[in-house]
Structure to design on (1501 residues):
C-alpha cells in the first residue's frame, strides 16, 4: 500500500496530461465450456481499472475497458479487434486466449496500428516469428509462453528420479509444442531419459479412460500433461479412479496451478503433483502480491487465477507505458513498452525488446493440503529463473534454446 | 417378324414369401393398346415398378427394342422411351402446370443441363410444352400451381408429364383412379386417340372393366404373380379362370 | 497385454453406454416426432446442473438429485414443445433444426448466467466413488455402474415401444398424426409426452454424467451431442436398437482408436458413419424400403 | 337422428370449400355423398370427423353438438373414418393396424379382429405383413376393417370402391350389407353411381360445395336430368 | 411489387454498396465485406438447400477447401490473388465433387448426415496434417499482392474486389436459378422420383448442384482468407456449415433475396447485440426464436406473405 500512496504525487508532477479517456478493448472467451476464463480475465481487469481510476486514471485520463467474447475462433477475434479500434476507438487492446487467434491477430494489429498485450495465448511463434522475425511491433505478451510449460518443466524434471516419461496432452499445437520442448530440453539436461508413450486428447474430450490406459500400458515413471481447464479436471479425476497415481509417482502439470483446476478438483487433487501456471497467488511472497491477493479475494470471493493477474497487469503495463511516453500515441507507447520493466503481483516483468515477450518467473510447486484453503496449494516450491529457460533471440539453432552456458 | 417393342424373359420378383412375378414371359407389340388386370395384390404395380426401373428384378431379363435394359437406371430407360405414370398422384406440387411439363420436355430436348441461359428463352421447348398441354387439355391452366388443380386435372397432368417425355412405351398405373365416370371415359378416349396416332404404345392398369374391354386391343390378366390369361378382350372375358378369380359372375 | 486389452474394452463400453444414455432420448424424439433436436445436448447440460444444484439441498444424496433434477428439465422440455416446437412440425425440417438451435444458444448462456461461467467440479457418489480391481488394474465402480445402466435403459425402452400398446400407439402416431387422431389418439398431448420423456432421458443422462465426466461447464452439451448424433445416425435414425448398437461400436472404436491409432481417432468415427450411411442408410436394423 | 349437419361452412385457407352444407343421416342408414371431382365430398367427411374443422355451422351426433370437438374425442363418441388415401400405419403389421383401433376406441360391440378377417380373408393371409408393403386393394380392406374395429355407430367411408377389382367390389357390397346389419350407420362418398345404388338408401348430391339435390338412391338413379347435370358432364 | 420495383431496389442496393466502399469508415467497410462474403456463401448454399432441397452440413469443409486452397497457393506458389482465387475455387469444387459423389446417393436427413461425416473427415485432416495445414493455428501470413497491377492491400481497395466477386456471384446464381438447370433442381426438390421419370439423371444433377454451390463456398472461403490473411481450421467444422443454413432460413429459403437479407441481419444483428451484452448467444437465440415463430418462412418469405403476394404462383415458390 505504501507504493500506492506515494505514486499520485509523482503522477501529478511529472507526465503531461493525456487527452480523453484511455480506451482499452479486451477480448477473451466468454461463452461455451471455457467461459470461466473470461470471467477470471474480467475480475483482474476490472480491478485494475477501478484502482487506476480511483487514483486519477492514466496520466489524468480515465481508463475505459470494453469486453468482447472472443469465442476462440480467429475471424471473431479479428472482427473484435477491428471493432475495438475502428468503431469504438480503442487506444490499446488486450486479452486473447487461443494461440491461433493470437497468430491471426498479429498482422491485423499491424494494419490497425495499435498495440495489443496478449494475456493468455501461449504460442512461442507469436514472439519468435510474428514479432521477432516479421517485425510486427504492435504485439506484446505479458503472460509466460510455452517455455514455461515445456522448458521449465524439464528443468524441474531433471532433478526427479524418473527416467521414463509419457504424456497425455491436448491434440493441438499447444500440446505438441510443449511436449516436444519438454523432451528436447530434458534430453539435453539429463542424457538417458526415455519418452515412452504419448496420448493425445482432442479438444473437448471428457472421457480420458482410454488415454489413461495407454499410459498405464507403457509403465512410465513420470507423466507430463499440459491438459488444462475442465479437461484437466476430468483427466485427474479419472486418473485417480484408475489408480494412476499409485503407479506413477511423478506427475507434472504445467498449467495445473490454474485456479479453476485447483478449485474444481478440491480435495481430489492428489498430494505431491508438480504444478505450475502463468502465475500462482502464493508467489512471490512479497508485500505487493500478498496485498493484491487479499484485496482480490475480498472483492471477488475467489483467489486470483493466472489470467486475472495477467489481465490486471496488462492494464498497468499500458498505464506505465503511457505515462512514460507522455502520450497514448501508439508508436510512442510501443516504444515505451519495448524493454519496459514493471512491477506486478507476479513480480518483476521485463518486456524483451526483441520479441516483446515479458520475462518473469513463475514457480513450480508440489501440491499439498493446507487447512487455510479449501483446495490444494503449493507445498514445496521450486523457482527456476526465467532467463535460464526462455528461448533467446535470434530463436535459431541450439544456442537459442536452453540450457544456456553461463 | 420384327423385333417386339418390349420382351420380358423369365421375370421374377418376390417380397419375402409374397411372389409378385413368377417367371413372367411376354412381349408387347408397338401400337397395341394393352391392359393389365388382376385382383388386388396380384403384382400389377410391382410389374410396372420392375419394368420401369423403380424396383430391380430378382431374376429374368427385360429387352426394350431388342436391347437388354434389365440393369439400366430409370432415367436411361426414360431416355430410350420407356416411361410410366403413377397410381397415386405424383406431380411437382408447387411448380406450375407449365413447369411440370417443361421438365420432361427439357430432358427430351437435351436442354436440361443449360445452366446459364434463362429457361424462358428456350422457345422450342415452350412450343413443345404447349403442344402437350393442348393434348391433355390443360392449356388453359398453364400457370396454375399443380397443387391447386382438382384431383381429376392432376391425373391429367400426371399423364401429360409422362407423355412429355415422348415415350415409345408408356405404362399408366390406374390413370383414372378417383375420377368420375365421365372424365374417366374422356381420358381413356384420349388415350385411345393418342395410341391410334401411333407415337406411343400404351399399357394401362385399370379396374373398370367396361373401359378395359371396350378400349383395349389386348388384355393380360395377372394373378399371384403369374399370367393366367392373355389375349383379345373377348377371349379374356370368356375365360373361366379369370371370371373366377377376378371378374366374379357378372361384369358389374 | 490381456490386462490392457480388457481395460481398453471396458473403457470403450463405458464410453459407449454413456453416449447411449444421451442418444436414446435423441433417437426417441427423432423417431416419433421427426425432429432432430439439437437442444438435446442442452437438456443433458440442464440435467447435470439441476442434479448438481439439488445436491446441496438434499444432503448430498446423489440418487435423490438424480430423481428430482431431471423433473425440472422435463418442465423446460414441456415448455419448449408445448409453446414452440408444436408450431413448426408442419414446416420445413431445417426450421425445426433452427428452432432447437436457438434453444441451444439460449440455454448455454442461461446456464452461464445462473450458475456462473466457470467449471464446477462434481462431488463423488457415495458407494460408487471407489474402484474395483480387474486383472490387476483399477476400474472405477461408477463406470461399471454406467455399463450396467445402459442395457437396462435399452431394455426398458425396447419393451415400452415394442411390447406395450402405448408403444404401438406412439409408433402409429409418429407415422401418421392425422389418422391416429381420427382413431382416437390425442396426438398433441402424446407428442408432448414423448418429447418430455425424451427430455427426461437426456436430463438423466446429464445427471449420470456429473460423476462420470467429473465436472460441469456451460456448453458441456455440445461435445456429447455430436457423439449422440453419430450414434443415432449409424444406428438408423429413429431406431433405438440401432442406436444402442451404434453406441457400443462408437465407444469401442474410439477406445481402441485412442489406444492404437491415436492420430486418426476422430477420422475413424466419421468414416464409420459415412460407410454405414452409404451401405445401410436405414441403419443396422432398418428394413429395405421398396417403394 | 344420428347425424345432422346444419349450415356447415369450411375453408382451406381462403377458399370457401363447403358452403352452408346441411344433411341428415338416420340410424342404420347407408347414405351416399355424390358429386364430381373436387366438389367437397372428402372435405365434408373431414369436417364431420374434425380433421378440417368447419368455420361455422353445427354438427350434431346423437343429438349432441360435436362441431368444436377434436378428432380424437369424436372417435371416442363412435365416429370412424376411412380416408380416401387409406392411411395405413406403415410401421405396424396388418394385425396391429386392426388392434390399435379397437384398443384406442375402447368400445365393445360386434366387431373384433376375427370377424373383420372373416369379412376380408386376405387380411388373414397378410396378418404379419407391414402396412407399408401391402397392395392398394389390400390397404383399402384393411382401412375399412380398421374403421370397424372401433365398433363405431357411424363410419365415414371415402371412395370405398375405388381401385378395387370387380370381384372385391362385389364382396364389398356384401360386406357393407353385413356391416349395416350389425347396426352400423354409413355415410360414404363415392363416384361410382352403380356401386352406390347397390348399397345406399339415400344420396346427397354436392356441387361446388353446396348440397344441390337429395333423395332416395333409386330416384336419383332414375332421374336422368340430375345425373346428367351434377354427376356426368 | 412490380418487376421495375425489384430492379430499383437492387439498383439502390448496388449504389449503396459502392457508396460504402467510397465513403464509409474502416469498420463499416470490414463488416460490409463480411456480410458480402457470408452472402456469397449463403447464396451458393441456398442453391442446394432452397432449390434442390438438400441440407448439407459439409459446406464448412468446402469453404475451408477454398480457404486452404488459396492459402497454400499463396504461401508456397504465388501471391497472385486472381490465380489464388481460381485455385481456391477449383480446389473447393474438386473436394465438392469427391464428397458429393458419395453423398448424392442419399437424400434428406441421410444426405445431411453424410455431408456431416465427410465434412468432419476433412476437418480432421486439416487438424491433423500439421506440416501442411499448420494444425489448429491455421495458415498465417497470407498476403494480398496487387491484382492485375491494382493494389488491394488496403481495405478500401480490397473492398472493391469483394464487391466485384459478390456482384458476379449474385448475377451467376440468379442466372442459374432462372435456367433450365435451375428448374430441374426445383423439380428434384419437389419430387425426385418423378424427375427421374422425366428422363433426368437425378444423381448427376444433385452432384452438379453440390459442386456449383461448393464452388461458391470456396469463393467465399478464399476471399475470406485474403481478407483476414489467415485460414483457420474451425471454418471446416460442421458448425460453420450451420451458418449459411441459419442465414438462408432467417432470410427465407425459397426466395432469391432471402440469403442476402439473412446475411445482413445475421452480421448486423450480432454486432448490435454485442454492443449491449456479452451474453450475445442468449439474445441472439431469443431473436431467432422470434423470427421463426413470428415469420415462418424467414424474413423475406414472411414479408412476401404479408404483402399478400401469391407465392404459390411463383416459379418454385413453396407454401
Ligand atoms: N416392398 C414390398 N414388400 C413386401 N411385399 C410387397 C412389397 N410391395 C408389394 N408387396 C406385396 O406384393 C403384392 C403385389 O403388390 P402390387 O402393388 O403389385 O399389387 P397390385 O396388383 O398393383 O394391386 P392393386 O390393384 O391393389 O394396386 C401385394 O400382396 C403386396 O402386399
Ligand atoms: N389441402 C387443400 N388445400 C387447398 N385446397 C384444397 C385442399 N384439399 C382440397 N382442396 C380443394 O377443395 C375442394 C374440395 O376438395 P375435396 O377433396 O373435398 O373434393 P372431393 O369432392 O372429395 O373430390 P374427389 O372426388 O376428387 O376426391 C377442391 O377444389 C380442392 O381443390
Ligand atoms: Mg397397384
Ligand atoms: Mg375426395
Amino acid at each position: 500500500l505504501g507504493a500506492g500512496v506515494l505514486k499520485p504525487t509523482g503522477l501529478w508532477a511529472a507526465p503531461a496530461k493525456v487527452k480523453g479517456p484511455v480506451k482499452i478493448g479486451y477480448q477473451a472467451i466468454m461463452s461455451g465450456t471455457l467461459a470461466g476464463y473470461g470471467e477470471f480475465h474480467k475480475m483482474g481487469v476490472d480491478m485494475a481499472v477501478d484502482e487506476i481510476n480511483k487514483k486519477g486514471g492514466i496520466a489524468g485520463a480515465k481508463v475505459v475497458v470494453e469486453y468482447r467474447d472472443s469465442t476462440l475462433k480467429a475471424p471473431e477475434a479479428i472482427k473484435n479487434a477491428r471493432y475495438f479500434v475502428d468503431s469504438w476507438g480503442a487506444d490499446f487492446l488486450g486479452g486473447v486466449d487461443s494461440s491461433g487467434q493470437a497468430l491471426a491477430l498479429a498482422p491485423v494489429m499491424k494494419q490497425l496500428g495499435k498495440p495489443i498485450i496478449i494475456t493468455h495465448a501461449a504460442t512461442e511463434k507469436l514472439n519468435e516469428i510474428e514479432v521477432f522475425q516479421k517485425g510486427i511491433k504492435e504485439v506484446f505478451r505479458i503472460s509466460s509462453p510455452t517455455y514455461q510449460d515445456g522448458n521449465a518443466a524439464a528443468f524441474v524434471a531433471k532433478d526427479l528420479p524418473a527416467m521414463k516419461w509419457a504424456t497425455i496432452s491436448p491434440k493441438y499445437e499447444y500440446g505438441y509444442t510443449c511436449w516436444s520442448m519438454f523432451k528436447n530440453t530434458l534430453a539435453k539436461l539429463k542424457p538417458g531419459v526415455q519418452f515412452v508413450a504419448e496420448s493425445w486428447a482432442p479438444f473437448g474430450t471428457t472421457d480420458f479412460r482410454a488415454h489413461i490406459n495407454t499410459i498405464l500400458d507403457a509403465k512410465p515413471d513420470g507423466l507430463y500433461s499440459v491438459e488444462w481447464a475442465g479437461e484437466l479436471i476430468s483427466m485427474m479425476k479419472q486418473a485417480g479412479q484408475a489408480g494412476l497415481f499409485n503407479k506413477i509417482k511423478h506427475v507434472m502439470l504445467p498449467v495445473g496451478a490454474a485456479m479453476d483446476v485447483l478449485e474444481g478438483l478440491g480435495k481430489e487433487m492428489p498430494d505431491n503433483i508438480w504444478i505450475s501456471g502463468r502465475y500462482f497467488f502464493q508467489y512471490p511472497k512479497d508485500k505487493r502480491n500478498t496485498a493484491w491477493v487479499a484485496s482480490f479475494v475480498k472483492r471477488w470471493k475467489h483467489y486470483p487465477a493466472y489470467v486475472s493477474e495477467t489481465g490486471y497487469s496488462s492494464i498497468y503495463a499500458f498505464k506505465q507505458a503511457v505515462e512514460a511516453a507522455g502520450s497514448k500515441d501508439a508508436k510512442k507507447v510501443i516504444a515505451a513498452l519495448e524493454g519496459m520493466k514493471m512491477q506486478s503481483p507476479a513480480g518483476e516483468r521485463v518486456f524483451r525488446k526483441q520479441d516483446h515477450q515479458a520475462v518473469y518467473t513463475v514457480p513450480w510447486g508440489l501440491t499439498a493440503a493446507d487447512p487455510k484453503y479449501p483446495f490444494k496449494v503449493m507445498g514445496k516450491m521450486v523457482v527456476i529463473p526465467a532467463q535460464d529457460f526462455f528461448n533467446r533471440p535470434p530463436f535459431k539453432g541450439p544456442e537459442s534454446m536452453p540450457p544456456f552456458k553461463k | 417378324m420384327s423385333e417386339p417393342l418390349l420382351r420380358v424373359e423369365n421375370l421374377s420378383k418376390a417380397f419375402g414369401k409374397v411372389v409378385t412375378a413368377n417367371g413372367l414371359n411376354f412381349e408387347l407389340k408397338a401400337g397395341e393398346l394393352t391392359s393389365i388386370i388382376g385382383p388386388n395384390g396380384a403384382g400389377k404395380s410391382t410389374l410396372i415398378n420392375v419394368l420401369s426401373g423403380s424396383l430391380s428384378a430378382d431374376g429374368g431379363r427385360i429387352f426394350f427394342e431388342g436391347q437388354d435394359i434389365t440393369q439400366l437406371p430409370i432415367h436411361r430407360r426414360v431416355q430410350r422411351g420407356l416411361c410410366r405414370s403413377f397410381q397415386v398422384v405424383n406431380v411437382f406440387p408447387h411448380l406450375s402446370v407449365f413447369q411440370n411439363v417443361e421438365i420432361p420436355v427439357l430432358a427430351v430436348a437435351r436442354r436440361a443441363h443449360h445452366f446459364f441461359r434463362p429457361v424462358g428463352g428456350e422457345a422450342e421447348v415452350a412450343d413443345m410444352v404447349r403442344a402437350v398441354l393442348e393434348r391433355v387439355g390443360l392449356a388453359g391452366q398453364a400457370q396454375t400451381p399443380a397443387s391447386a388443380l382438382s384431383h381429376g386435372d392432376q391425373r391429367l397432368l400426371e399423364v401429360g408429364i409422362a407423355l412429355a417425355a415422348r415415350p415409345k412405351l408408356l405404362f399408366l398405373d390406374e390413370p383414372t383412379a378417383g375420377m368420375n365416370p365421365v372424365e374417366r371415359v374422356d381420358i381413356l378416349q384420349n388415350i385411345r386417340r393418342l395410341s391410334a396416332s401411333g407415337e406411343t404404345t400404351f399399357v394401362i392398369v385399370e379396374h373398370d372393366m367396361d373401359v378395359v374391354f371396350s378400349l383395349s386391343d389386348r388384355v393380360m390378366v395377372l394373378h399371384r404373380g403369374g399370367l393366367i390369361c392373355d389375349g383379345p378382350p373377348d377371349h379374356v372375358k370368356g375365360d373361366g379362370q379369370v371370371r373366377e378369380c377376378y371378374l366374379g359372375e357378372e361384369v358389374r | 497385454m490381456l490386462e490392457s486389452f480388457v481395460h481398453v474394452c471396458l473403457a470403450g463400453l463405458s464410453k459407449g453406454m454413456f453416449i447411449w444414455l444421451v442418444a436414446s432420448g435423441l433417437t426417441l424424439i427423432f423417431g416419433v416426432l421427426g425432429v432432430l433436436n439439437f437442444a438435446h445436448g442442452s437438456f443433458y447440460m440442464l440435467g447435470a446442473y439441476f442434479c448438481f444444484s439439488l445436491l446441496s439441498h438434499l444432503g448430498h444424496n446423489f440418487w435423490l438429485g438424480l430423481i428430482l433434477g431431471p423433473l425440472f428439465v422435463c418442465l423446460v422440455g414441456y415448455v419448449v414443445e408445448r409453446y414452440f416446437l408444436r408450431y413448426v412440425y408442419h414446416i420445413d425440417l431445417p426450421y425445426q433444426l433452427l428452432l432447437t438451435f436457438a434453444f441451444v444458444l439460449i440455454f448455454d448462456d442461461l446456464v452461464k448466467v445462473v450458475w456462473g461461467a466457470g467449471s464446477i467440479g462434481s462431488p463423488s457418489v457415495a458407494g460408487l466413488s471407489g474402484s474395483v480391481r480387474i486383472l490387476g488394474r483399477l476400474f472405477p465402480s461408477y463406470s461399471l455402474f454406467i455399463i450396467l445402466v445402459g442395457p437396462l435403459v435399452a431394455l426398458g425402452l425396447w419393451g415400452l415401444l415394442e411390447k406395450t400398446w402405448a408403444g404401438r400407439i406412439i409408433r402409429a402416431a409418429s407415422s401418421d398424426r392425422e389418422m391416429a387422431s381420427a382413431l382416437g389418439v390425442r396426438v398433441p398431448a402424446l407428442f408432448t409426452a414423448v418429447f418430455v420423456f425424451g427430455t427426461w432421458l437426456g436430463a438423466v443422462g446429464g445427471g449420470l454424467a456429473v460423476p462420470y465426466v467429473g465436472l460441469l461447464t456451460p456448453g458441456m452439451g455440445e461435445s456429447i451431442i455430436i457423439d449422440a448424433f453419430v450414434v443415432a445416425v449409424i444406428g438408423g435414425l429413429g431406431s433405438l436398437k440401432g442406436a444402442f448398437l451404434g453406441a457400443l461400436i462408437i465407444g469401442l472404436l474410439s477406445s481402441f482408436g485412442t489406444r492404437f491409432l491415436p492420430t486418426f481417432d476422430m477420422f475413424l468415427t466419421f468414416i464409420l458413419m459415412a460407410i454405414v450411411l452409404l451401405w445401410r442408410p436405414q441403419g443396422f436394423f432398418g428394413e429395405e424400403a421398396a417403394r | 337422428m344420428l347425424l345432422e349437419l346444419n349450415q356447415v361452412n369450411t375453408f382451406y385457407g381462403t377458399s370457401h370449400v363447403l358452403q352452408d352444407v346441411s344433411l341428415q343421416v338416420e340410424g342404420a342408414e347407408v347414405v351416399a355423398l355424390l358429386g364430381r371431382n373436387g366438389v367437397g365430398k372428402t372435405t365434408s367427411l373431414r369436417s364431420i370427423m374434425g380433421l378440417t374443422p368447419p368455420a361455422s355451422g353445427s354438427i350434431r351426433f346423437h343429438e349432441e353438438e360435436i362441431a368444436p370437438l377434436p378428432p380424437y374425442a369424436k372417435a371416442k363418441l363412435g365416429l370412424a373414418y376411412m380416408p380416401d388415401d387409406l392411411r395405413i400405419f406403415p410401421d405396424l403389421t396388418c394385425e396391429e393396424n386392426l388392434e390399435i383401433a379397437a384398443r384406442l376406441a375402447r368400445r365393445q360391440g360386434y366387431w373384433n379382429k376375427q370377424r373383420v378377417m372373416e369379412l376380408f380373408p386376405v387380411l388373414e393371409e397378410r396378418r404379419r405383413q407391414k402396412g407399408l408393403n401391402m397392395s392398394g386393394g389390400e390397404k383399402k380392406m384393411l382401412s375399412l376393417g380398421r374403421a370397424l374395429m372401433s365398433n363405431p355407430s357411424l363410419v365415414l367411408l371415402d371412395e370405398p370402391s375405388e381401385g378395387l377389382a370387380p370381384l372385391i367390389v362385389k364382396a364389398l357390397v356384401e360386406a357393407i350389407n353385413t356391416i349395416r346389419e350389425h347396426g352400423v350407420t354409413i355415410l360414404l362418398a363415392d363416384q361410382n353411381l352403380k356401386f352406390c345404388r347397390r348399397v345406399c338408401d339415400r344420396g346427397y348430391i354436392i356441387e361446388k360445395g353446396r348440397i344441390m339435390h337429395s333423395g332416395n338412391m333409386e330416384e336419383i338413379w332414375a332421374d336422368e336430368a340430375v345425373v346428367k347435370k351434377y354427376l356426368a358432364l | 411489387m412490380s418487376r421495375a420495383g425489384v430492379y430499383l431496389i437492387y439498383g439502390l442496393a448496388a449504389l449503396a454498396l459502392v457508396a460504402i466502399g467510397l465513403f464509409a469508415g474502416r469498420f463499416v467497410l470490414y463488416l460490409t465485406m463480411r456480410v458480402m462474403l457470408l452472402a456469397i456463401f449463403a447464396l451458393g448454399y441456398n442453391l442446394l438447400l432452397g432449390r434442390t432441397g438438400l441440407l448439407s452440413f459439409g459446406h464448412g469443409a468446402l469453404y475451408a477447401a477454398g480457404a486452404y486452397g488459396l492459402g497454400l497457393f499463396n504461401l508456397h506458389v504465388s501471391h497472385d490473388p486472381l490465380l489464388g482465387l481460381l485455385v481456391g475455387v477449383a480446389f473447393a469444387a474438386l473436394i465438392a465433387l469427391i464428397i458429393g459423389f458419395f453423398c448424392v446417393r442419399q437424400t434428406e436427413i441421410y444426405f445431411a448426415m453424410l455431408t456431416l461425416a465427410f465434412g468432419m473427415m476433412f476437418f480432421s485432416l486439416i487438424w491433423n496434417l500439421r506440416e501442411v495445414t499448420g494444425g489448429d493455428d491455421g495458415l498465417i501470413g497470407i498476403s494480398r499482392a496487387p491484382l492485375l497491377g491494382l493494389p488491394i492491400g488496403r481495405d478500401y481497395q480490397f473492398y472493391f474486389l469483394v464487391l466485384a466477386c459478390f456482384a458476379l456471384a449474385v448475377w451467376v446464381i440468379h442466372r442459374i436459378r432462372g435456367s433450365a438447370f435451375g428448374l430441374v433442381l426445383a423439380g428434384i426438390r419437389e419430387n425426385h422420383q418423378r424427375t427421374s421419370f422425366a428422363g433426368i439423371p437425378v444423381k448427376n444433377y444433385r452432384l452438379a448442384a453440390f459442386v456449383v454451390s461448393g464452388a461458391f463456398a470456396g469463393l467465399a472461403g478464399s476471399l475470406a482468407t485474403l481478407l483476414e490473411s489467415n485460414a483457420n481450421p474451425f471454418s471446416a467444422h460442421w458448425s460453420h456449415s450451420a451458418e449459411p443454413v441459419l442465414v438462408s432460413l432467417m432470410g427465407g429459403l425459397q426466395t432469391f433475396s432471402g440469403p442476402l437479407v439473412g446475411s445482413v441481419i445475421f452480421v448486423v444483428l450480432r454486432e448490435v447485440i454485442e454492443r449491449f451484452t456479452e451474453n450475445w448467444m442468449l439474445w441472439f437465440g431469443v431473436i431467432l426464436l422470434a423470427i421463426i415463430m413470428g415469420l415462418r418462412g424467414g424474413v423475406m418469405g414472411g414479408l412476401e406473405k404479408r404483402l399478400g403476394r401469391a407465392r404459390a404462383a411463383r416459379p418454385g415458390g413453396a407454401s
Remarks:
- The pocket of magnesium ion (ligand 3) is lined by residues B 44-45, 87; D 135-136 (CB under 6 Å).
